[in-house]
Amino acid sequence: MKYNFEQIEKKWQNKWDENNTFAAKNDTSLPKYYALVEFPYPSGQGLHVGHPRSYTALDIVARKRRLEGYNVLYPMGWDAFGLPTENFAIKNHIHPEIVTEKNVARFKGQLKSLGLSFDWNREVNTTDPSYYHWTQWIFLQLFKKGLAYKKKMAVNWCTSCKCVLANEEVVNGVCERCGAEVIHKEKSQWMLKITEYAQRLIDDLDLVDYINPVKVQQRNWIGRSTGAEVLFTTTLGDELKIYTTRPDTLFGATYMVISPEHPMIKERADKIENIDEVKAYQAEAAKKSDFERAEVNKDKTGVEIKGIRAINPVNGADIPIFVSDYVLMTYGTGAIMAVPAHDTRDYEFAKAFDLPIIEVVAGGDIEKEAFTDCATGVMVNSGLLTGLSVEDAKVKIIEWLKENKKGEPKVNYKLRDWVFARQRYWGEPIPIVHCEHCGAVPLDESELPLVLPEVDSYEPTENGESPLSKLDSFVNTTCPKCGGPAKRETDTMPQWAGSSWYFLRYCDPHNVNALAAKEALDYWLPVDWYNGGMEHTTLHLLYSRFWHKFLYDIGVVSCPEPYAKRTSHGMILGENGEKMSKSRGNVVNPDDIIKEYGADTMRLYEMFIGDFEKAAPWSSASIRGCKRFLDRVWNLQTCVTDGAGYRPEIEGEMHKTIKKVTEDIEALKFNTALAAMMALLNTITATGSITRGEFRTLLILLNPFAPHLTEELYELLGYGGMLNQQKWVEYDESKCKDDTVEIVAQVNGKIKTKLTIDANASKDDVLALAKEDEKMAVAMAGKNVVKEIYVPGKLVNIVVK
Ligand code: ANZ
Ligand code: ZN
């Protein structure tokens, strides 16, 4: 009988659907397991072969957990707000809602054709008003706690998308999405105070099991820095505060630098003799992104402020003040003391402007020193600090600063507050009303959801306002507080809003009274295993941890962290190791693979492609190998013999394979689990037959990987019931010991070869085997054996003369 995957796969997909096989039960008496993958953005391109890598991996985990007796929640949904849909809608004059609906239908069909065991009863869609009702509700809670606020600020402005971008969406100075130039623009923006959670977002990484690179990236992104704020004064008598991580180097400060946006420039413009030159420099700096400005290797530019100098509080030295764009207004105090002897950027600036360099940490070669941070060493030229170690000097100078009211210790974070607004149509409306008397007033919760209104055009306006601003019937409203005339907020929420809490909605997706019932949240949370892309580490993963912590603080959820475990898959690349992209024309369409080889082969292949966490190039030859493996499993049905157990000659390998597959799945080693099953198949095939007991075990082990084929064979062989209702197979540890070992064989202490021997072989047997070996025989030829040594399990040495 031919392996008709097309027919088999359709049959089982329908059966699973009809029987609601993968529905998670709301039965809190059962042990639960919550497996989660990042829900896709339903783009017009359809599913990418990268999606199934993550989805299949956790599908394997979910299926295995069900066989292990868990009540499993493995949900799927759509992160459907966002720019590409909106841009497509504008270009083709179709409502984004219709575009979304089409794309979702396509994605869903593709996911179903892969046999993924999602609980489709719990499907969510972030653009559904019954969903964003609760996104808006969370926003209102944040607003009420002072964590959502409006602020006029310089924002990243994409010149092509005509919209504000978060720092995270600006990559190397260009828009992450469209690649166009990003400039700075002043705008009043909704912001979320994620910075208030910075320390907890670092500390609580200790509570979770995330792969190390994720923890490291999050810590670096939050960027905790410890140092001191030091009060310098100016020759005008003003205070000028700086932030430094190296207060120990205060005696080495030879000049000061303030950011081009520093308020002192405006406040003291009349005292700055070269104010025109300074203003021209400010204008130049405004064109650059923070990223460009912070670049270590860029040329150092700047202007000295004429007419005002700074006074160092520790020694009274008066030093020049420069304006330079390498100092950012968005970090610390926007002003630094420059210590060119021990800081790379200060050093380069000092060289460029011919400024003095004073060494304060002994080391010798200043040129070299500036390129290391000299965090160890002995202080020199440093008054009360001279002779101390750097560590002691830090403590002592901070004491001195505190006593003399010239400064204090300070912790800073690189993390910035989250710009929580877009001037676009296709997003969640922000439920706020602006009243001349009452200011920003939240909508009453009973008014939610505030539904996105129909508009004639989704194009952003030329002045960068949202298309909603042109819709008078939406904009004009009454103030919920005073009843007077008021205007609605017309900005919408950013792409990351809906995905910041979607895992909560899956717990109870149809609830109309709350984002989810408390019992459901308490039962299912935290997510036991969350897999997703590394590129989401500092965006989605951090944002959702922040929202979750906030919801924890207001009593909505009971655990401080949303995800107990986080792993990440490598990208799938083109055949030659290049990125898959439409422009390169090397995109593989999963539909084509499924059509030609079947979903089970596709799943197997994506798990076999290489180490799960590493990027892997696509290989058509390797797909065919996976298909052949499944063909051979299929053909085993022709040589099945009676017998519920394992035959003695393969019993050991059966147990070892069960153990390997069981453990490898947990360790994300899907490829080696498959390799073990392939090896087992070879052993079995060599015997010419397979017992019913052996076959059953093989089917259960392979089921999470190739669910359709294994269900079909299970049914054909009449084991009774459906395979997905069975128990995972067990192994006997005592039967997993290796029965052969490799030992070293020597002549006169020199290694000649390696021998594979039975682990229980006697000394005589091993010696006999050694003497038969060709290489050993050559080395011993014509000589007499004087001694024979055998170290069990390790080596045999024959001494000859
Ligand atoms: C003097 C000094 C001496 C510094 C030395 C470093 C080494 P992190 O670790 O990133 O927090 N700095 C402070 N505010 C800045 C701003 N707004 N823009 C650019 N640079 C700024 O680094 C803090 C250090 O970066 C501070 O410590 C300051 O330079 C600089 F041997 O002060 B340091
Ligand atoms: Zn009012």
From TrEMBL:
Q: Which residues bind ATP?
A: 582
Q: Please state what the protein is called.
A: Leucine--tRNA ligase
What is one process in the GO biological process aspect for this record?
leucyl-tRNA aminoacylation
Q: Which Gene3D superfamilies match?
A: 3.10.20.590, HUPs, Isoleucyl-tRNA Synthetase, Domain 1
Q: Which SUPFAM superfamilies match?
A: Anticodon-binding domain of a subclass of class I aminoacyl-tRNA synthetases, Nucleotidylyl transferase, ValRS/IleRS/LeuRS editing domain
Which family is this sequence assigned to?
Answer: Belongs to the class-I aminoacyl-tRNA synthetase family.
Q: Name one GO cellular component term.
A: cytosol
The subcellular localization recorded is: Cytoplasm
Where is the major localization of this protein? cytoplasm
Q: Which superkingdom heads the taxonomic lineage of this protein's source?
A: Bacteria
**Molecular function GO terms recorded:** aminoacyl-tRNA deacylase activity; ATP binding; leucine-tRNA ligase activity
Residues of the Methionyl/Valyl/Leucyl/Isoleucyl-tRNA synthetase anticodon-binding domain: 650-763
- PROSITE patterns the UniProt entry points to: AA_TRNA_LIGASE_I
**HAMAP family assigned:** Leu_tRNA_synth_B
Which positions does the motif 'KMSKS' region occupy? 579-583
What residue stretches are annotated with the Leucyl-tRNA synthetase editing domain? 219-401
Q: Does the keyword Nucleotide-binding apply?
A: yes
Residue ranges occupied by any Aminoacyl-tRNA synthetase class Ia domain in the UniProt entry: 11-213, 414-606
Q: Which keywords are on file for this protein?
A: Aminoacyl-tRNA synthetase, ATP-binding, Cytoplasm, Ligase, Nucleotide-binding, Protein biosynthesis
Gene from which this protein is expressed: leuS
The record, for PANTHER family, names: LEUCINE--TRNA LIGASE, MITOCHONDRIAL (PTHR43740:SF2), LEUCYL-TRNA SYNTHETASE (PTHR43740)
- EC number(s) on record? 6.1.1.4
Catalysis: reaction(s): tRNA(Leu) + L-leucine + ATP = L-leucyl-tRNA(Leu) + AMP + diphosphate
